[in-house]
Design brief:
266 residues; alpha/beta; TIM Barrel; eight-stranded parallel beta barrel; 13 helices; 8 strands; 45% helix
């Protein structure tokens, strides 16, 4: 059985002080049932992706966290070092206490011009360390209206995973489907639509890289995930978790998502 992963992407929010306050509230609740039981039985994994400047505070807070809690970075450069002002290397991310790193997020693609080829370089650079890439794919509203959803996400997926050995997929790679039109808009793909695309992504991996990698690959859904819709999404067979945005910035709303998501495991 694939372990559920609920990830919170804080984007450019949360100062170090705000991060400290978040974890003070969050960790107290996380130690109580039903979260403690789910984490202890390895049914649930929780990951948060703070901004770089808050990672050290988060890492310190997690020293007393229960098993099953991880940190991630929001982006990385594929080079190991160099004259790249403002960039962060995989080794720097790894040393900061992270287990995961987002790659290919739509905001990186559309606001900063990151291409499929750059995304693939990042995936491969991360896999050369102990870090696990979370490869984000998703179509824009215009692409969806033109009926190009499957074409777009297939291209992003296969380009992003190019030259990645099949045996690395299940253990070391996570894929997140985030329709661009649903990110931060309050609009959410229906449970059926999200399941359809997540199933498609898994089938593409199976066709191209083998059934074993496809079956063990975790596929997340992201895009205006909140407590009200998380249980229905998590109950779908090809959705293994969520990549949460704004609702992960407050401990109470993020905990509500965790609680509702756990109901799908009951």
């Amino acid at each position: 059985m694939r372990k559920m992963l609920i990830a919170g992407n804080w984007k450019m929010h949360m100062t170090a002080g705000e991060t400290e306050q978040f974890f003070r509230e969050f960790m107290a609740s996380l130690r109580q049932p039903p979260f403690q039981e789910a984490l202890g039985r390895s049914r649930l994994e929780v990951a948060l992706f703070p901004p770089f400047t808050s990672l050290y505070v988060a890492a310190f807070a997690l020293e007393e966290a229960p098993r099953g809690f991880s940190l991630g970075a929001q982006t990385v450069h594929w080079e190991t070092h160099g004259a790249l002002t403002g960039e962060i290397s995989p080794a720097m991310v790894e040393e900061s206490g992270c287990r995961y790193c987002l790659v290919g997020h739509s905001e990186r693609r559309h606001l900063f011009g990151e291409t499929d080829e750059m995304t693939n370089l990042k995936v491969r650079a991360l896999l050369a360390t102990s870090l696990r890439p979370v490869l984000c794919v998703g179509e824009t509203l215009a692409e969806r209206e033109r009926g190009e959803t499957f074409t777009v996400v297939r291209r992003q997926l296969l380009k992003g995973l190019e030259s990645v050995p099949a045996h690395r997929l299940g253990q070391d790679v996570v894929v997140a489907y985030e329709p661009v039109w649903a990110i931060g808009t309050g609009k959410t793909a229906s449970d059926d639509d999200a399941q359809e695309v997540c199933h498609f992504l898994r089938s593409v991996v199976g066709d191209q890289l083998g059934a074993e990698g496809a079956e063990s690959l975790r596929v997340l859904y992201g895009g205006s995930v909140k407590a009200e819709n998380s249980a229905g999404l998590m109950a779908r067979p090809d959705i293994d978790g969520a990549l949460v945005g704004g609702a992960s910035l407050k401990s109470d709303s993020f905990l509500a998502i965790l609680k509702e998501s756990l109901s799908a495991l009951a």
